User: Fold these one by one.
Assistant:
Number 1:
Amino acid sequence: MKLERLLSIVVLLINRRRLQAKDLADIFEVSIRTIYRDIDTLGQAGIPVVTYQGASGGIGLAEGYRLDRNLLTDKDLASIVTALRSISTTHTNTARELLVEKLSSIVPEAKNEDFQASTHRFIVDYSTWTHPEALQQKLNVIDQGIDQLQCIRFAYCNAEGAQSYRTVDPHTLVLKKHVWYLYAFCHERNEFRMFKLVRMKDVTLAAQHFERKSIDLQDRPWQQDWSRPDNQISMTLKFHARARHLAEEWFGIENVLPDGNGYYISQVAFPEDNWLYGFILGFGADVEVLEPFHIRDKVCQMAEQIVQKYKTATQT
């Protein structure tokens, strides 16, 4: 366990450049004193660990230090191959496929059977059930734009149905809840925005190029916009017993509680927009919005419009 912790400390210091001893202690659930003993051990082993003093101090490594690639174990390689194959279920890429072949070839022939079994132990299938070709085409164009630092253009329909044309600097493809998004700097809005790929049409490369901006993707800036308190509204939803499993899938078992009368209550928070109304209506008669009242009234109004539409269609 100590050896694994020492190697993990080195990897963290390479990736994050400088960390407080308390941060490392919290990560590995050991005392600060243990972390300092580990640092001494690393120094004695020839790892150039540097301790910085002052308010912005901490523990780091000498500039330019890198791990030898031979430190990757067969288990590490199997994890990488599994991740690459999972991504390829929805985003095929020749270079990625060749990388899988290269990594597989590193493993000694005597261990190849066990290695292949490890890489097939599980797979995350991100592919859609229908029309994967259109998605793949968009991904290829965006991937090319990111790789060549080339702007892309497309027509976009937002959640309210408003259409516009955008030119953006593509920075990052984000896969969230089985849906692909593009995190890009929008020229029209002069800020970073998230674009849902299924709402993008006529995606093409633009003539101009861009300089990639410095952003901290570890903090997932798109998540911060979604989860801002001022961007969400709290709701109380009441579910019929037959929809309990669906509520648990969405909100977690711990957030679906019996009310003592055969129904289940969930306290949830989402940004309020047309997606939210459609999401609630998707549960049909198995959900009731208890609070807030204006969302309850909005869903009721939309449900009445649906009923009226079908009545009119039947009469004609």
Note: The chain has eleven helices and twelve strands.
Number 2:
Amino acid sequence: MPSKLLLRVTASVTGSLALAVCLTACGGESASSTSSAGSKGGEKTVTVYSADGLKSDKGDGWYDKVFADFTKKTGIEVKYVEGGSGEMVQRAVRERTNTQADVLVTLPPFIQQADGKGLLQAYQPQGSDKVNGGDKAADGKWTSVVNNYFGFVHNKKELTEAPKTWEELLDAKYKGKLQYSTPGVAGDGTAVLIKAMHDFGGKEPAMEYLKKLQANNVGPSSSTSKLAPKTDKGELLVANGDVQMNFAQAKSMPNLGIWFPAKDGGRPTTFALPYAAGLMAKAPHTENGRKLLDYLLSEEAQKQVSEVGGGFPARTDVKPTDANAVELTKIMGGVEVFEPDWADIDKNPTGYVDAWKSATGS
């Protein structure tokens, strides 16, 4: 099998959010609940395992809003656990004989891995017919609930202009001031490999570049969300992230800027990394899980994706015009969006991560 990934350009995002098709997430390491009420065995409980980025420490994130509204409408309390995209799948695998979660939300290729491990059952939520075919499983095992794109952040105070190319990041001024989350653990960390392989034209040249970049890299991080605060404070000049999460963080982190690296001589690129949700195969509260998935894809919740969460609706018929939506369109302007070969990545995740480990000595 050739090492070069599929590089099919799907769009140049320059107009409205109708062109926005998918999102990134990242790794976190916290656990919380929207309420102390209810027990695992209670009929009025639903447990969500999710990659982080949609819930805010300040309680003003998209999850905070929609979970509270869902509980108010249904009386069902949401118990919430978050972590790295791969970490959440691994946890669900460990609990296979005693499933704790009802709903799993994670990023590609981890949602495909979860399906491949038999963790998900088919369920097509209400509103999923309005989600693009590429943003949901054909057999109904998962569907995107929030769309987003992979990206990088920089400290605007120290770097008034964002870097433009991957090659610039090899400069000595970035030594100890650059960090990206761990591939294979964090969704956005795995995204670094995917974008590098696209931009450099294959696995080998990408690994050659990342080997050089390692001289400036601070080291591994299981949580992408923790890199933005470090960048805002100036501890880092550059880090990886995703548009939705970083856009939301920038509201309280004034030095945070979003940018997209290009190969020297090329255009800035990105790809879609949706928050994809599926119903657990042995969910202890299956019906409550279905109700929550229905609500996450409801028009009401989808209209709040940009306004509250700083992300992109998964439903194509929801076209927000709020201030955040306008600003997000500007951020994505002129950025070339490519479609990774997810089937290849799903078949060879270990091979790509092992190649990165070998190249970087990680």
Note: The chain has a mean pLDDT of 89.
Number 3:
Amino acid sequence: MIVDILRLVGEPALRRLGYGTAQLTGPGYWGPRGERADAVAVLRRAVERGVTLIDTADNYGPDLAEELVAEGLHPYSADLVVATKGGVVRTSDSAWHIAGRPEQLRTMCEASLRRLRTETIDLYQLHRLDPEVPLAEQLGALGELRREGKIRHIGLDTVTVVQLKEALGLAETGSIASVQNRFNLIDRKSEAVLEVCEAHDLAFLPWFPLANGALAGEAAAALDAVAARHGASRGQIALAWLLHRSPVLCPTPGTGSLAHLEENLDAAAIRLSEEDLAALR
């Protein structure tokens, strides 16, 4: 059960509201964004505020985000879930190359272990399915790493319902713990994937939970009345909506700003009414 695996679903809202590290790196998730000490301070403050899920990836930087997580949070507390991703190689700020051959996945996972300074990665997510490699081979490589104790649980990023069901049929029972698809208040294309996650008790870590800046546009104007009722920002209402939408949703908004971090985490205390939810629906 995911309740036992991640200790997120069913826990108080703040524990379902995690922290994503992409914004600790520069534009295009390439290179540093600012001072290293500032990034470390944000990570430590997130954990001080009760965050129990840190979501990172080997290609944020590349390598940099994982190094910052280790610098700021190692040794990791027993209740902290550190999730990372592999399966994509970066060669520039705009070049992404899917790399899902078993030997590539093993090499990337072992490099993440070294950067994170850990013997076991709590949640290792396949950043993209490689269309050139049979899914059974990709999951087989991760299953082998799991049996060796190098990862505890497997996650999938950006999958369709058909791909998710196929993966669940191929993987060892209980090894797949999460899905990470794009999902937010104004982009709900993965509703059907969310339903499968609910049926199988999988955590759903929505990427771009704040719609990557689009909440400032007219498409999200309905947020204003709800936000005014709660004395909150548009972003806070969008995060609160995700927490209300499904108990398996675990948003991991990212930021490099301490002030923005505090604002995001305060969204956990917002209780939306039926009127609010109807307006946002």
Note: The first helix runs from residue 2 to 6.
